[in-house]
Amino acid sequence: MSTKLKDLAKKPQILSGGHRLCAGCGAPIAVRQVLMGVPDDVKIVVACPTGCLEVSTTIYPYTSWNCSYIHCAFENAAATLSGVETAYRSCKEQGKIKEEYRFIAFGGDGGTYDIGLQSLSGALERGHRLIYVCYNNEAYMNTGIQRSGATIKGTWTTTSPFGNNSYGKKENQKNLTAIAAAHNIPYVAQGSISHWKDLVRKAKKAFATDGPVFLNVLTPCHRGWRFPMEKTVEIAKLAVQTCMWPLYEVENGKWNLTVKVRDKKPIEEYLKPQGRFAHLFKKSPEVLAAIQENIDREWEKLLHLCGEK
Amino acid sequence: MNSLTKTAALVGTDAVAEAMRQINPDVVAAYPITPQTAIVETFSQMVADGLVKTHMIAVESEHSAMSATIGAASCGIRAMTCTSSQGLALMWELLYIASGLRLPIVMPNVNRSLSAPINIHCDHGDSMGARDSGWIQLFSENAQEAYDNTIQAIRIAEHPDVQLPVMVLMDGFIISHSIDRLDIQDDASVQNFIGTRNPTYSLLDAQSPVSVGTFDSLYGYFFEFKRQQEEGMSNALKVIQEVGKEFGSLFGRPYGLFETVGMEDAEYAVVATSSAAGTIRTEVERLRSKGIPIGMVKLRSFRPFPAVQLAKLLSGLKAVAVFDRSNTFAGNIGGPIFIELRSSLYELEKRPRIINYVFGLGGRDLSVELVKKAVSRLIDIKPNEIIQQNVYYLGLRE
Ligand SMILES: Cc1ncc(C[n+]2csc(CCOP(=O)(O)OP(=O)(O)O)c2C)c(N)n1
Ligand code: SF4
Ligand SMILES: [Mg+2]
Asked: Is domain B258-394 given the CATH code 3.40.50.920 in the classification?
């Protein structure tokens, strides 16, 4: 199966139109790009934890999923899917089903970095053959833009507001991709909806991997990030170009930078168009410098890990 | 069908593990906690020894145990787990999801108190905390009943008119860790009895994919779903009796919603559950032999609660004492069985007086002396006496 656009465009849509996600939402773009990687001859079961994607794609009695789908709760998509995957292996072993299945979870950053981290870690450690995709919009959007462990320093959210005593979120985000990689699972990668070819290639690898896979995909949310809805992909691209969101993979322990950024753009170019950072430009320029410092440090670390330095 | 019966001496946890071996579920996801641990260990060994076809998921928490069990059961196969106390509490939100999705999951729960203070011994506070979670709850008096209930639970849960998860309850340590004599049926008879699961939906049905656990809001059908769930629970009253009768005709041990001792001519009755029923029965029988018209009702099915059946049975009695191994913390209005039963009797024209004994919290022993004390108060109640004190704490150091 090729990654040529004209071939990919012919693939049947597994997430169909008519869902109720906001126009311009990054999440369904990530879902569609990842599902471009589903091999032609396999079926899939999708699991979603509670979140924007879940509530907007399965409003009873409708569903946007042209495949089997399960939502259980907010913090347990990985555990739930591990049960599905195990049931499949049991059925396969007993000769009860002939079809080949793959199992894939799409969880928000809240359901993945925070409340669902234990469930994810357990599933990765147990070695289930499943793909967990975090569609990362850096906050709890479904409940109205609250900070998460993925929210970057300085961000305004409704639970990290700015005020006389606050410049927004005080802490840096955690590096969940590296945490997943520390489970020594066969395949971990970071992707962005702006780099569809890179992401589809990673998704294909994911579906071919016999073991747990973790993909962390940046999916801007214009409602929470405060930018015009037609700029979603552009913003995602700036995140990559500023090295805010580097694209790389860790395959059987080997780190590999998949999109090389020669001229790293200053972080202001990414932050400026987003209303969630507007207060920093007015009142807290020192935080801009701190964000840049963190990016530079993390980027250097990554270059070393990937053997680029 | 001729069933071979083998007599064995097993601790309660092994009796349950043996039932699970014979059920041979497709998937088990479980996490250890005292006093349930031995079930997980024994069953893991059975998997390791190839005695079952089960795929075991050694999860990292009870939350994940129930999540994985829900995922597996949504594939139309048989999935089980087991737990106790804090583990059950950690599963809480998922208990409602399992029943709301109408998944016929069977889960033995070894009754243990809930923290704080931390205490590993028996009371019913854990499963009572889940009494409105939409699970069927069956109490077991001893290892035999724990074994029998686990097997019957599969049939009850999967019955098309029910389709609800079942919790099989047994007392921590008192039953889980005591060696008991019990009859074990042969594997083939158990398999014949439980049959195969015929699911309505499966995530793995390639011909008709399905969305499970969808979003249903203000203008949806939530209320209707919940009403149907109640219907399933009401239907379970009949199904529990049918399954118990069939079980009895095959294996010689019939079951109903409750069991009675001497209720034909009783004027007083004690209502009890689980292992305490053994101690109480001894005292009730002693009094009966002395001509005192007292009987006992051993409640097996707490959910569904056999309100109508119990009201019929207790109508016209002088007084009833209810033994509760947990409390409701509702302002001294008694334990959960007492509250349910008192409400069930309300419509009766000939309503008995009713008192409650909360006992045995955190494993506090229920001695025959304590039962004697409680029963002597019961049989002292006069018809039409105005009861000043309804709720007693039996065995409390005051
Ligand atoms: C146990 C529990 N706590 C809280 C919630 C409320 N809740 C539902 S979705 C959500 C946030 C989802 O955020 P995220 O995972 O980032 O997904 P997004 O909506 O941003 O796509 C929260 C807090 C819940 N459903 N369950
Ligand atoms: S709020 Fe954000 S994440 Fe949620 S649907 Fe809208 S754009 Fe997407
Ligand atoms: Mg989010």
From this structure: yes
* Residue B1 confidence (pLDDT) above 80: no
Detail the DSSP E strand segments found in B203-304. Answer: 211-212, 258-261, 268-273, 294-299, 301-303
**For residue A71, what is the nearest residue in chain B, using CA coordinates?**
B213
Q: Cα of A191 to ligand 3 centre, how many Å?
A: 16
Instruction: Name every chain B residue with its beta carbon within 8 A of the beta carbon of A45.
Output: 203-204
pLDDT digits (tens, 9 = 90+) for B75-87: 999 999 999 999 9
Cβ separation of B214 and A73 shorter than 8 Å? no
User: What are the residue boundaries of the structural domains of chain B, listed by start?
Assistant: 6-197+211-251, 258-394
Binary contact (A69, B209; C-beta < 8 A): yes
Those of residues 76-95 in A touching chain B at CB distance below 8 A are: 76, 79-91, 93-94
Common-topology check for domains B6-197+211-251 and B258-394? yes
What CATH number does the domain located at B6-197+211-251 have?
Answer: 3.40.50.970
Q: What is the pTM of this model?
A: 0.98
Task: Please report the domains of chain A, with CATH numbers, ordered by start residue.
Answer: 5-305 (3.40.50.970)
Which residue among B63, B70, B215 places its CB closest to the CB of A60? B215
Q: Render pLDDT for A92-143 as a digit per residue (tens, 0 to 9).
A: 999 999 999 999 999 999 999 999 999 999 999 999 999 999 999 999 999 9
